[in-house]
Amino acid sequence: MFEHLEKYAGDPIFRLGDEFHQDPRERKVNLTVGLYYDDAGRIPLLRSVQQAEARLGGELRPRPYLPIEGLPAYRSAVQELVFGAGSEAVRAGRVATIQSVGGTGALKVGADFLHAAYPDSHIWISDPGWDNHHAIFQGAGIATHTYAYYDSQGQSLRFERMLEDLRALPRHSFVLLHPCCHNPTGADLSREQWQALIPVLAAGELIPFMDMAYQGFGRGLDEDAGPVRAMADAGLTFLAANSFSKNLSFYAERCGGLSVVCGSADEAERVQGQLKAIVRRIYSNPPMHGGQVTALVMSDPELRALWEDEVAEMRARIAAVRRQAREQLEARLPGYDAGYLTEQQGMFSYTGLSAAQLHALRAEHGVYIIDSGRISVPGLNTRNIDYFTEAMAAVLRG
Ligand code: PMP
């Protein structure tokens, strides 16, 4: 009955990760998947999470269904984290928010919502971008296109081209944007560039979808959300997805949020209802455990302060690794400009390495980097950074 179906080739990033695990070499280095590792190479179990779980674990609780839109305390925490404590839009009741199944679940619900609201609209995604954005929106019936974003040869943003591309879009087009820690390049718009972009989006009556999977990993929890808040302050109607996968090291718990900023409280109420209707027909209700832990960490002042320190620690480690990798590469390769490592921020860096160089790194040195040349920086640590920079220098020397 299903013999006609194509075989799924697997996700290229996860596939390369599997290859890494099968590689018997002891000195191998995994820079493929976007996971945060600590300096010991472990995925951290945050102390704030452990303490929240200990508190909640003290009571054995029945497991009824959560509300379709998620826990009220969780949804308020998402609004506060994404839009800020003093947000006018939140206070005015103009923001519809649901607890989502990770950031990916927020994108899926948002995609279904957009397609139902504007069935003829298409979405524009950065070039380069995250492949799964294309898959998610196409899966929801939305055609995907790209706008110019980054020149990987020149290691620079193509901001003027980006504006030009967006100015040419039909009204009510959807535009996928990363407020911070752009995946895959690590190159973000400056505050001034956001200020220039927002009026272009408004003038074109475009509908932005802000995907914030790495809040806190760039410059800070508040700073990273700055573009989302600036967009809300400018009065735009838009969607914002956020994820606790990275900043709470909570990958498998699938905790995220989807918020839609509307023009009025009445509109937000309609939107909230439509989001619920979409969730009801996809997975009905979100899971409880991760939701309760997240809500507790975000709302308890002591756990919140601890969590903010832990996010700061992860952010500082990434920045330190970036500086160290840059210094080592520039020392090993006089004349080589590794400035991109410290100019880019968040988990990822775009190395600009060619396919042949990436292949040589894998084959000769056991250094695994995905085909776009994107490295996941927290895969580096005190034990492997010298080895990595030496391998990269060897490949760059040719
Ligand atoms: N958006 C981007 C840009 C991402 O990089 C990721 C995670 N790789 C997500 C969304 C999805 O996050 P989650 O794991 O919470 O589904």
From TrEMBL:
GO terms for molecular function: identical protein binding; L-tyrosine-2-oxoglutarate transaminase activity; pyridoxal phosphate binding. Its EC number is 2.6.1.57. Residues 304-331 form a coiled coil. Its cofactor is pyridoxal 5'-phosphate. Keywords: Aminotransferase, Coiled coil, Pyridoxal phosphate, Transferase. Residues 27-391 form the Aminotransferase class I/classII large domain. One of its GO terms (biological process) is L-phenylalanine biosynthetic process from chorismate via phenylpyruvate. InterPro entries: Aminotransferase_I/II_large, Asp_trans, PyrdxlP-dep_Trfase, PyrdxlP-dep_Trfase_major, PyrdxlP-dep_Trfase_small. One of its GO terms (cellular component) is cytosol. Belongs to the class-I pyridoxal-phosphate-dependent aminotransferase family. Homodimer. This is Aromatic amino acid aminotransferase.
